[in-house]
Amino acid sequence: MPASQHELTDRLVTAVTGKDSDAVGTLLREGADPRAPGPDGLPLLCTAVAGFDHESAGALTDGGADPDHELPDGTTPLLRAVDLGSPALVEAVLGDDPRTRLTEGARKRLLDLARYWTEAGDEAELRRRTGASGPAVQRLATENDTEVEEITLGGLTVRAGHTGILTWLERTFGIPAPVADLAARAVAHPDALHANWAQSRFVLGERRGPQVWHELKALRHHPDPVHRLFLADTVWSRNSLTWFNHRQDVAEDADFLASWARDEPDGTVLARVLDVYADQEHPDQETIGLRHAGHPDPRVRGEVPYLLRRASPPTEVATDTLLVLSRDPDPDVRRSVAGALAVGGLTPAFREALLTLVRDTDAQVRAGAAVALGTSDDRTGAVADALVALLDDQDQLLRLEMVHALARRDHPRTEYAWERVGELPPGFGEMPQQEDHRILAYRNYRSRHRPTEPHGPST
Length: 459
Fold this sequence. Notes:
The chain is mostly helical. It is built from 27 helices and 3 strands. Strands 1-2-3 form a 3-stranded antiparallel sheet.
């Protein structure tokens, strides 16, 4: 007998309280009431907001919960989300078309609150609110693909993402902040994973027009390398969004990156510039790669292989340089070379280099070389023997990669390779196991060689 809406809603309250966002989504689809009260009598959306549970909050909002519901203290769930300083939470609770849904006064109130926190400082405002004088407790919280500090003091907890929230609200409400202001907000948190940096990067990355591009390019000559690093990150965002949205208005970016790569003095910035530049189509990539092959910073040398493998087949000088880099003293550089050597097909020289790297003293280099060999179309006996030898490696995931490599080759030791993997952890890969490409390759192998037997190996 189907559950009644009352039963579903009771279970929904339990799921939100327990931060079980998967169950929240399922129960809402089955008919639970998204506007139900939580344990404190306030809308259930407030419970998700107070728990920094942006996934449940987003499901409730999408399901019909009202982010603008006026609460007894005069706030709303959306205003509370802004106050708590979690960009992911605010994005989840903004709801449909907030630019026209909210009154001018409501929009101003949200902007003013985010700006107030930004100017006051998170810890200072917590001390003002609580009167606490002891040390604040901080931890790093993960939100989607970003990170943000979570600060607790005097019994109150906020996250330090108010700057990113201000940036997002301005974008949402059609208030374009100046390029210099957005850059200043980002560099106050010099980490590409930080939520405040990420919001500025995204907003500037999607903004178009010659004046914006002119102001962005000016950051290339900023004396602070963090500003230049932010510019490189923003150019990456511009091009990623262009590809995603099938736009064609960043034609100058490759020329700009090529020019910049020739004279950037800071190793950290140069490595990021080369990383972004490697995703472009540009005739000077090999020349610029060769220019930096002997750079003293291994992060820069580690970007060179991807520039040198753009041409297929590679030129003789590019080939010689890649082989030299495959013997680089820095393991990160060798790992980078391993990932690039198999692009576009293995030459005999590159095969030998990978067969050497697969015996490297560094485990990550070995793994990178093994994956490169395994995913290549090389069917020589030397490569197959090297893949089989790795079935004794201590790294379970590397052994699983070898299952994939051997199954692709219909190698007779594929069954043995699967046995060598051993039991995989529960919930392996955080996806249905039949979708994991390595396990799928083994199942396809069994289908080809044992078609009358069940296909699905239990893990």
